[in-house]
Protein backbone atom coordinates (compact mmCIF):
# COMPACT_ATOMS: atom_id res chain seq x y z
CA UNK A 1 0.00 0.00 0.00
CA UNK A 2 1.36 3.44 -0.85
CA UNK A 3 1.06 6.39 1.51
CA UNK A 4 -1.19 9.28 0.52
CA UNK A 5 -2.08 10.91 3.82
CA UNK A 6 -3.47 14.43 3.53
CA UNK A 7 -4.21 17.07 6.15
CA UNK A 8 -6.38 15.27 8.72
CA UNK A 9 -8.22 18.47 9.59
CA UNK A 10 -10.19 18.21 6.36
CA UNK A 11 -10.76 14.46 6.80
CA UNK A 12 -9.70 13.72 3.26
CA UNK A 13 -10.07 10.12 2.09
CA UNK A 14 -6.71 8.51 1.61
CA UNK A 15 -6.52 6.31 -1.45
CA UNK A 16 -5.50 2.77 -0.63
CA UNK A 17 -3.36 0.69 -2.95
CA UNK A 18 -4.32 -2.85 -3.78
CA UNK A 19 -1.45 -4.52 -2.09
CA UNK A 20 1.56 -3.89 0.10
CA UNK A 21 4.66 -5.96 0.51
CA UNK A 22 3.67 -7.27 3.96
CA UNK A 23 -0.11 -7.32 3.40
CA UNK A 24 -2.18 -9.61 1.26
CA UNK A 25 -5.85 -9.44 0.33
CA UNK A 26 -7.70 -12.68 0.62
CA UNK A 27 -9.62 -13.85 -2.47
CA UNK A 28 -12.52 -11.46 -3.06
CA UNK A 29 -11.53 -9.14 -0.18
CA UNK A 30 -10.23 -6.37 -2.39
CA UNK A 31 -13.61 -6.05 -4.11
CA UNK A 32 -15.27 -5.35 -0.75
CA UNK A 33 -12.57 -2.84 0.15
CA UNK A 34 -12.92 -1.14 -3.21
CA UNK A 35 -16.68 -0.83 -2.77
CA UNK A 36 -16.19 0.94 0.56
CA UNK A 37 -13.71 3.42 -0.88
CA UNK A 38 -16.15 4.29 -3.67
CA UNK A 39 -18.88 4.88 -1.07
CA UNK A 40 -16.67 7.25 0.88
CA UNK A 41 -15.56 9.16 -2.21
CA UNK A 42 -19.26 9.68 -2.99
CA UNK A 43 -19.92 10.73 0.66
CA UNK A 44 -22.39 7.85 0.93
CA UNK A 45 -21.50 7.12 4.53
CA UNK A 46 -24.53 4.98 5.33
CA UNK A 47 -23.74 2.57 2.47
CA UNK A 48 -20.07 2.65 3.44
CA UNK A 49 -20.95 1.37 6.92
CA UNK A 50 -23.13 -1.39 5.40
CA UNK A 51 -20.34 -2.45 3.08
CA UNK A 52 -17.78 -2.34 5.91
CA UNK A 53 -20.02 -4.56 8.00
CA UNK A 54 -20.21 -7.00 5.10
CA UNK A 55 -16.42 -6.96 4.73
CA UNK A 56 -15.96 -7.56 8.48
CA UNK A 57 -18.55 -10.34 8.54
CA UNK A 58 -16.83 -12.23 5.70
CA UNK A 59 -13.24 -11.47 6.67
CA UNK A 60 -13.09 -10.98 10.45
CA UNK A 61 -9.37 -11.59 10.37
CA UNK A 62 -7.48 -9.60 7.78
CA UNK A 63 -4.09 -8.04 7.13
CA UNK A 64 -5.99 -4.79 6.64
CA UNK A 65 -7.56 -4.53 10.07
CA UNK A 66 -6.05 -1.09 10.73
CA UNK A 67 -7.04 0.16 7.27
CA UNK A 68 -10.60 -1.03 7.84
CA UNK A 69 -10.76 0.71 11.22
CA UNK A 70 -9.70 3.95 9.55
CA UNK A 71 -12.46 3.53 6.95
CA UNK A 72 -15.01 2.77 9.66
CA UNK A 73 -13.91 5.90 11.50
CA UNK A 74 -14.36 8.02 8.36
CA UNK A 75 -17.83 6.60 7.76
CA UNK A 76 -18.93 7.18 11.37
CA UNK A 77 -17.61 10.73 11.40
CA UNK A 78 -19.13 11.51 8.01
CA UNK A 79 -22.54 10.26 9.17
CA UNK A 80 -22.13 12.13 12.49
CA UNK A 81 -22.31 8.91 14.50
CA UNK A 82 -19.78 10.24 16.99
CA UNK A 83 -20.60 7.74 19.72
CA UNK A 84 -19.83 4.84 17.37
CA UNK A 85 -16.58 6.57 16.43
CA UNK A 86 -15.62 6.65 20.11
CA UNK A 87 -16.70 3.03 20.56
CA UNK A 88 -14.39 2.11 17.71
CA UNK A 89 -11.57 4.13 19.27
CA UNK A 90 -12.09 2.34 22.59
CA UNK A 91 -11.39 -0.95 20.82
CA UNK A 92 -8.45 0.38 18.81
CA UNK A 93 -6.52 2.36 21.43
CA UNK A 94 -5.20 -0.63 23.46
CA UNK A 95 -3.53 -2.07 20.34
CA UNK A 96 -2.87 1.09 18.32
CA UNK A 97 0.92 0.92 18.58
CA UNK A 98 1.09 -2.55 17.09
CA UNK A 99 -1.83 -2.09 14.71
CA UNK A 100 -0.09 0.81 12.97
CA UNK A 101 3.51 -0.16 13.55
CA UNK A 102 4.34 -0.24 9.81
CA UNK A 103 6.69 2.74 9.26
CA UNK A 104 5.39 3.34 5.76
CA UNK A 105 1.58 3.53 6.07
CA UNK A 106 1.25 3.29 9.86
CA UNK A 107 1.82 6.95 10.79
CA UNK A 108 -0.82 8.28 8.39
CA UNK A 109 -3.43 5.69 9.41
CA UNK A 110 -2.77 6.13 13.13
CA UNK A 111 -2.98 9.89 12.79
CA UNK A 112 -6.44 9.62 11.23
CA UNK A 113 -7.71 7.38 14.05
CA UNK A 114 -6.33 9.73 16.70
CA UNK A 115 -7.62 12.89 15.06
CA UNK A 116 -11.15 11.60 14.43
CA UNK A 117 -11.48 10.11 17.92
CA UNK A 118 -10.35 13.43 19.34
CA UNK A 119 -12.85 15.43 17.29
CA UNK A 120 -15.65 13.01 18.19
CA UNK A 121 -15.10 13.27 21.96
CA UNK A 122 -16.79 16.66 22.62
CA UNK A 123 -19.67 15.63 20.34
CA UNK A 124 -20.81 12.83 22.68
CA UNK A 125 -22.86 14.33 25.52
CA UNK A 126 -22.91 11.23 27.72
CA UNK A 127 -19.97 8.97 26.87
CA UNK A 128 -19.32 5.75 28.74
CA UNK A 129 -16.17 5.65 30.88
CA UNK A 130 -14.52 3.53 28.19
CA UNK A 131 -15.46 5.98 25.42
CA UNK A 132 -14.29 8.97 27.43
CA UNK A 133 -11.02 7.25 28.27
CA UNK A 134 -10.46 6.44 24.59
CA UNK A 135 -11.06 10.08 23.64
CA UNK A 136 -8.63 11.32 26.29
CA UNK A 137 -5.97 8.80 25.25
CA UNK A 138 -6.37 9.77 21.61
CA UNK A 139 -6.09 13.49 22.38
CA UNK A 140 -2.99 13.06 24.53
CA UNK A 141 -1.37 10.85 21.93
CA UNK A 142 -2.28 13.34 19.22
CA UNK A 143 -0.65 16.20 21.12
CA UNK A 144 2.59 14.24 21.36
CA UNK A 145 2.41 12.59 17.92
CA UNK A 146 5.77 12.73 16.17
CA UNK A 147 5.62 10.07 13.40
CA UNK A 148 5.69 12.01 10.16
CA UNK A 149 3.61 10.36 7.43
CA UNK A 150 5.40 9.77 4.19
CA UNK A 151 4.91 12.35 1.48
CA UNK A 152 4.77 15.43 3.75
CA UNK A 153 7.34 18.19 3.53
CA UNK A 154 8.84 19.75 6.63
CA UNK A 155 6.54 22.74 6.23
CA UNK A 156 3.44 20.56 5.80
CA UNK A 157 4.35 18.42 8.79
CA UNK A 158 4.93 21.46 11.00
CA UNK A 159 1.56 22.90 10.00
CA UNK A 160 -0.20 19.58 10.52
CA UNK A 161 1.18 19.22 14.04
CA UNK A 162 0.05 22.77 14.77
CA UNK A 163 -3.43 22.19 13.35
CA UNK A 164 -4.19 19.24 15.64
CA UNK A 165 -3.30 21.09 18.86
CA UNK A 166 -6.58 22.98 19.24
CA UNK A 167 -8.96 20.00 18.82
CA UNK A 168 -6.78 17.85 21.09
CA UNK A 169 -6.83 20.45 23.86
CA UNK A 170 -10.58 20.96 23.39
CA UNK A 171 -11.19 17.24 23.82
CA UNK A 172 -9.12 17.07 26.99
CA UNK A 173 -10.87 20.13 28.39
CA UNK A 174 -14.27 18.62 27.59
CA UNK A 175 -13.32 15.38 29.34
CA UNK A 176 -12.06 17.25 32.40
CA UNK A 177 -15.20 19.37 32.71
CA UNK A 178 -17.70 16.61 31.96
CA UNK A 179 -18.17 15.32 35.57
CA UNK A 180 -18.85 18.85 36.81
CA UNK A 181 -21.11 19.65 33.87
CA UNK A 182 -23.14 16.48 34.46
CA UNK A 183 -23.57 17.37 38.14
CA UNK A 184 -24.76 20.88 37.25
CA UNK A 185 -27.28 19.67 34.67
CA UNK A 186 -28.97 17.27 37.05
CA UNK A 187 -32.45 18.06 38.30
CA UNK A 188 -31.96 19.44 40.87
CA UNK A 189 -28.40 20.63 40.37
CA UNK A 190 -25.80 18.79 42.43
CA UNK A 191 -23.56 21.72 43.24
CA UNK A 192 -21.83 19.84 46.06
CA UNK A 193 -20.59 17.22 43.57
CA UNK A 194 -19.77 19.82 40.92
CA UNK A 195 -17.39 21.78 43.16
CA UNK A 196 -14.71 19.06 43.63
CA UNK A 197 -15.14 17.93 40.02
CA UNK A 198 -14.46 21.42 38.65
CA UNK A 199 -11.68 21.96 41.19
CA UNK A 200 -9.91 18.83 39.95
CA UNK A 201 -10.42 19.93 36.35
CA UNK A 202 -8.98 23.37 37.11
CA UNK A 203 -5.93 21.83 38.74
CA UNK A 204 -5.37 19.88 35.52
CA UNK A 205 -6.11 22.88 33.27
CA UNK A 206 -5.16 25.97 35.33
CA UNK A 207 -5.48 28.37 32.41
CA UNK A 208 -8.99 27.29 31.38
CA UNK A 209 -11.26 30.26 32.06
CA UNK A 210 -14.36 28.18 31.30
CA UNK A 211 -13.59 25.87 34.24
CA UNK A 212 -13.08 28.85 36.57
CA UNK A 213 -16.41 30.31 35.48
CA UNK A 214 -18.30 27.02 35.93
CA UNK A 215 -16.63 26.45 39.29
CA UNK A 216 -17.72 29.94 40.32
CA UNK A 217 -21.31 29.06 39.44
CA UNK A 218 -21.17 25.92 41.59
CA UNK A 219 -19.56 27.82 44.49
CA UNK A 220 -22.21 30.52 44.27
CA UNK A 221 -24.88 27.82 44.40
CA UNK A 222 -23.28 26.60 47.65
CA UNK A 223 -23.22 30.20 49.02
CA UNK A 224 -19.41 30.20 49.07
CA UNK A 225 -19.46 33.76 47.87
CA UNK A 226 -15.83 34.76 48.38
CA UNK A 227 -14.48 31.74 46.48
CA UNK A 228 -17.10 32.20 43.76
CA UNK A 229 -16.14 35.84 43.26
CA UNK A 230 -12.47 34.85 42.99
CA UNK A 231 -13.24 32.36 40.20
CA UNK A 232 -15.61 34.73 38.37
CA UNK A 233 -12.89 37.38 38.41
CA UNK A 234 -10.19 34.93 37.30
CA UNK A 235 -12.31 33.86 34.33
CA UNK A 236 -12.98 37.49 33.41
CA UNK A 237 -9.33 38.48 33.74
CA UNK A 238 -7.53 35.60 31.97
CA UNK A 239 -10.07 34.99 29.15
CA UNK A 240 -13.51 36.65 29.27
CA UNK A 241 -14.48 34.82 26.06
CA UNK A 242 -14.23 31.50 27.97
CA UNK A 243 -12.35 29.96 25.09
CA UNK A 244 -14.33 31.76 22.43
CA UNK A 245 -17.74 30.61 23.68
CA UNK A 246 -19.01 33.68 25.56
CA UNK A 247 -19.57 37.43 25.27
CA UNK A 248 -16.58 38.99 27.12
CA UNK A 249 -18.58 42.07 28.15
CA UNK A 250 -21.20 39.91 29.87
CA UNK A 251 -18.61 37.79 31.64
CA UNK A 252 -16.83 40.87 32.98
CA UNK A 253 -20.14 42.43 34.03
CA UNK A 254 -21.17 39.26 35.86
CA UNK A 255 -17.84 39.06 37.67
CA UNK A 256 -17.84 42.72 38.76
CA UNK A 257 -21.52 42.62 39.79
CA UNK A 258 -20.86 39.56 41.98
CA UNK A 259 -18.13 41.48 43.80
CA UNK A 260 -20.05 44.72 44.36
CA UNK A 261 -23.19 42.85 45.44
CA UNK A 262 -21.32 41.15 48.27
CA UNK A 263 -18.81 43.86 49.14
CA UNK A 264 -21.19 46.80 48.72
CA UNK A 265 -18.83 48.78 46.45
CA UNK A 266 -15.98 48.28 43.99
CA UNK A 267 -13.40 49.23 46.62
CA UNK A 268 -10.59 46.66 46.41
CA UNK A 269 -11.77 45.24 43.09
CA UNK A 270 -8.71 46.39 41.16
CA UNK A 271 -6.44 44.64 43.67
CA UNK A 272 -8.49 41.44 43.36
CA UNK A 273 -8.14 41.49 39.56
CA UNK A 274 -4.37 41.41 40.01
CA UNK A 275 -4.52 38.76 42.72
CA UNK A 276 -6.49 36.23 40.65
CA UNK A 277 -3.69 36.14 38.05
CA UNK A 278 -1.40 34.46 40.58
CA UNK A 279 -3.27 31.20 41.14
CA UNK A 280 -6.21 29.27 39.63
CA UNK A 281 -7.64 28.68 43.11
CA UNK A 282 -7.91 31.21 45.96
CA UNK A 283 -5.58 30.98 48.97
CA UNK A 284 -6.90 29.02 51.95
CA UNK A 285 -7.43 32.21 53.96
CA UNK A 286 -9.07 34.15 51.12
CA UNK A 287 -12.10 36.20 52.11
CA UNK A 288 -14.12 39.17 50.94
CA UNK A 289 -15.77 41.32 53.56
CA UNK A 290 -19.48 41.68 53.02
CA UNK A 291 -21.30 44.99 53.08
CA UNK A 292 -22.84 44.09 56.45
CA UNK A 293 -19.43 43.18 57.90
CA UNK A 294 -18.00 46.49 56.74
CA UNK A 295 -20.98 48.33 58.19
CA UNK A 296 -20.54 46.55 61.52
CA UNK A 297 -16.83 47.37 61.57
CA UNK A 298 -17.58 50.99 60.74
CA UNK A 299 -20.19 51.12 63.48
CA UNK A 300 -17.81 49.56 66.00
CA UNK A 301 -15.10 52.05 65.09
CA UNK A 302 -17.61 54.91 65.38
CA UNK A 303 -18.70 53.69 68.80
CA UNK A 304 -15.08 53.51 69.91
CA UNK A 305 -14.32 57.02 68.66
CA UNK A 306 -17.62 58.64 69.71
CA UNK A 307 -19.17 56.48 72.45
CA UNK A 308 -21.58 59.14 73.74
CA UNK A 309 -22.75 60.14 70.28
CA UNK A 310 -23.19 56.48 69.32
CA UNK A 311 -25.36 55.92 72.39
CA UNK A 312 -27.53 58.89 71.53
CA UNK A 313 -27.93 57.80 67.92
CA UNK A 314 -29.20 54.42 69.10
CA UNK A 315 -31.66 56.10 71.45
CA UNK A 316 -32.79 58.55 68.78
CA UNK A 317 -33.14 55.76 66.23
CA UNK A 318 -35.42 53.80 68.55
CA UNK A 319 -37.48 56.89 69.38
CA UNK A 320 -37.81 57.80 65.69
CA UNK A 321 -39.11 54.37 64.79
CA UNK A 322 -42.82 53.70 64.31
CA UNK A 323 -42.91 52.24 67.83
CA UNK A 324 -40.89 55.12 69.28
CA UNK A 325 -43.46 56.23 71.87
CA UNK A 326 -43.92 52.65 73.06
CA UNK A 327 -40.16 52.32 73.39
CA UNK A 328 -40.04 55.51 75.44
CA UNK A 329 -42.81 54.44 77.82
CA UNK A 330 -41.64 50.86 78.30
CA UNK A 331 -37.84 51.15 78.28
CA UNK A 332 -36.57 54.70 78.45
CA UNK A 333 -38.85 56.71 80.75
CA UNK A 334 -37.57 57.15 84.31
CA UNK A 335 -34.47 55.05 83.54
CA UNK A 336 -31.02 56.51 84.12
CA UNK A 337 -29.09 57.09 80.91
CA UNK A 338 -25.27 57.04 80.83
CA UNK A 339 -23.42 60.22 80.05
CA UNK A 340 -24.34 61.99 76.81
CA UNK A 341 -22.73 64.86 74.95
CA UNK A 342 -24.24 67.85 73.21
CA UNK A 343 -24.05 71.57 72.43
CA UNK A 344 -26.14 74.19 74.20
CA UNK A 345 -28.56 75.94 71.87
CA UNK A 346 -30.25 78.18 74.43
CA UNK A 347 -31.25 78.50 78.06
CA UNK A 348 -34.75 79.12 79.38
CA UNK A 349 -34.86 81.69 80.77
CA UNK A 350 -31.74 83.23 79.33
CA UNK A 351 -30.50 84.25 82.77
CA UNK A 352 -30.45 81.82 85.68
CA UNK A 353 -32.15 79.28 83.46
CA UNK A 354 -33.74 76.05 84.66
CA UNK A 355 -33.96 74.41 81.22
CA UNK A 356 -31.31 73.89 78.59
CA UNK A 357 -32.09 73.08 74.96
CA UNK A 358 -29.32 70.89 73.55
CA UNK A 359 -28.38 69.79 70.02
CA UNK A 360 -26.32 66.67 69.35
CA UNK A 361 -24.19 67.37 66.25
CA UNK A 362 -22.59 64.64 64.12
CA UNK A 363 -18.92 65.17 63.16
CA UNK A 364 -18.40 66.91 59.82
CA UNK A 365 -22.10 67.76 59.52
CA UNK A 366 -23.94 71.03 60.22
CA UNK A 367 -25.44 71.43 63.69
CA UNK A 368 -29.16 70.65 63.71
CA UNK A 369 -31.98 71.89 65.97
CA UNK A 370 -32.29 71.09 69.64
CA UNK A 371 -33.20 67.45 70.27
CA UNK A 372 -32.94 67.28 74.06
CA UNK A 373 -34.36 69.48 76.81
CA UNK A 374 -32.54 69.29 80.16
CA UNK A 375 -34.73 70.12 83.16
CA UNK A 376 -32.38 71.30 85.91
CA UNK A 377 -32.93 70.76 89.65
CA UNK A 378 -32.15 74.42 90.36
CA UNK A 379 -31.52 77.64 88.44
CA UNK A 380 -28.08 78.28 87.06
CA UNK A 381 -25.90 80.90 88.66
CA UNK A 382 -25.66 83.05 85.57
CA UNK A 383 -26.14 83.22 81.83
CA UNK A 384 -25.16 80.23 79.66
CA UNK A 385 -23.03 80.81 76.60
CA UNK A 386 -24.69 79.19 73.53
CA UNK A 387 -22.46 76.78 71.61
CA UNK A 388 -20.75 75.39 74.68
CA UNK A 389 -20.19 71.59 74.58
CA UNK A 390 -21.54 69.90 77.69
CA UNK A 391 -21.69 66.37 79.12
CA UNK A 392 -24.42 65.18 81.46
CA UNK A 393 -26.26 62.28 83.01
CA UNK A 394 -30.00 62.32 83.34
CA UNK A 395 -33.34 60.52 83.48
CA UNK A 396 -35.82 60.82 80.57
CA UNK A 397 -39.19 62.13 81.72
CA UNK A 398 -41.08 63.18 78.56
CA UNK A 399 -40.99 62.76 74.78
CA UNK A 400 -42.66 64.30 71.74
CA UNK A 401 -42.22 62.81 68.29
CA UNK A 402 -43.11 65.96 66.33
CA UNK A 403 -41.24 68.12 66.78
CA UNK A 404 -38.71 65.63 68.05
CA UNK A 405 -37.71 66.43 71.65
CA UNK A 406 -36.63 64.23 74.53
CA UNK A 407 -36.89 65.80 77.98
CA UNK A 408 -34.45 64.65 80.64
CA UNK A 409 -34.29 65.55 84.34
CA UNK A 410 -30.82 66.19 85.70
CA UNK A 411 -28.90 68.02 88.37
CA UNK A 412 -26.73 71.04 87.74
CA UNK A 413 -23.90 69.17 89.48
CA UNK A 414 -24.09 66.42 86.82
CA UNK A 415 -23.71 68.82 83.90
CA UNK A 416 -20.08 69.28 82.88
CA UNK A 417 -18.68 71.94 80.58
CA UNK A 418 -21.22 74.68 81.27
CA UNK A 419 -19.89 78.16 80.73
CA UNK A 420 -21.80 80.96 82.40
CA UNK A 421 -21.33 84.65 82.76
CA UNK A 422 -22.89 86.94 85.32
CA UNK A 423 -26.32 88.09 84.35
CA UNK A 424 -25.41 91.68 85.27
CA UNK A 425 -27.04 94.10 87.78
CA UNK A 426 -30.35 95.78 86.97
CA UNK A 427 -29.96 99.44 85.88
CA UNK A 428 -30.25 101.95 88.84
CA UNK A 429 -33.47 103.99 89.11
CA UNK A 430 -32.87 107.72 89.05
CA UNK A 431 -35.22 109.96 91.08
CA UNK A 432 -37.70 111.87 89.04
CA UNK A 433 -37.16 115.64 89.29
CA UNK A 434 -39.65 118.21 88.33
CA UNK A 435 -38.68 120.77 85.78
CA UNK A 436 -38.54 124.32 86.97
CA UNK A 437 -41.02 126.58 85.51
Structural summary, described in words:
- The protein has 437 residues and is α+β, with helices and mostly antiparallel strands.
- Among the domains are: 8-174, Serine Threonine Protein Phosphatase 5, Tetratricopeptide repeat (Alpha Horseshoe), CATH 1.25.40; 307-421, OB fold (Dihydrolipoamide Acetyltransferase, E2P) (Beta Barrel).
- It contains 17 helices and 8 strands.
- Strand 1 and strand 2 (355-359) form a beta hairpin.
CATH topology description of the domain at 8-174: Serine Threonine Protein Phosphatase 5, Tetratricopeptide repeat
Q: Indicate the overall shape.
A: rod-shaped
As residue ranges, the low-confidence spans are: 1-19
Helix-strand sequence: HHHHHHHHHHHHHHHHHEEEEEEEE
Major sheet: order of its strands?
1-2-3-6-5
Proportion in helices: 40-55%
Portion in beta strands: 5-15%
Helix/strand structural class: alpha+beta
**How far do the termini sit from each other?**
158 Å
Rg (C-alpha, Å)? 43 Å
Can you give me a brief rundown of this structure?
With 437 residues, the protein is α+β, with helices and mostly antiparallel strands. The chain has helices spanning 29-41, 45-58, 65-78, 82-92, 96-99, 106-120, 129-143, 154-163, 165-184, 191-204, 209-221, 225-238, 248-263, 269-275, 291-305, 307-320, 324-332, and strands at 337-348, 355-359, 372-376, 383-384, 389-400, 405-410, 415-416, 420-421.
Outline the secondary-structure elements:
Elements: H1 29-41, H2 45-58, H3 65-78, H4 82-92, H5 96-99, H6 106-120, H7 129-143, H8 154-163, H9 165-184, H10 191-204, H11 209-221, H12 225-238, H13 248-263, H14 269-275, H15 291-305, H16 307-320, H17 324-332, E1 337-348, E2 355-359, E3 372-376, E4 383-384, E5 389-400, E6 405-410, E7 415-416, E8 420-421
Parallel strand pairs: 3-6
Antiparallel strand pairs: 1-2, 1-5, 2-3, 4-8, 5-6, 5-7
Amino acid sequence: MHSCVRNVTVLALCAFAAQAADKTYKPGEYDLFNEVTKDLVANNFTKAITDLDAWKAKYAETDYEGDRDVLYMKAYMGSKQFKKALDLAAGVMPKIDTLFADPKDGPGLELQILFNATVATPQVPDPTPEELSAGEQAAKKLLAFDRRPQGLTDEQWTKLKSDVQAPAKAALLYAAMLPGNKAMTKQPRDCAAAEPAYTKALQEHPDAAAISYNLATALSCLHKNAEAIYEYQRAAVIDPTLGGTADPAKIKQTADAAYTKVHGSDEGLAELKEKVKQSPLPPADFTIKTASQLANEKEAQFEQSYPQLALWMKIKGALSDTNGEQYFESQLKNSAVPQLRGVVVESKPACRGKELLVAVPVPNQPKGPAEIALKLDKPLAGKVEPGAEIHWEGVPSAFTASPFLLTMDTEVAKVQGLKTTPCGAAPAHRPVTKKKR
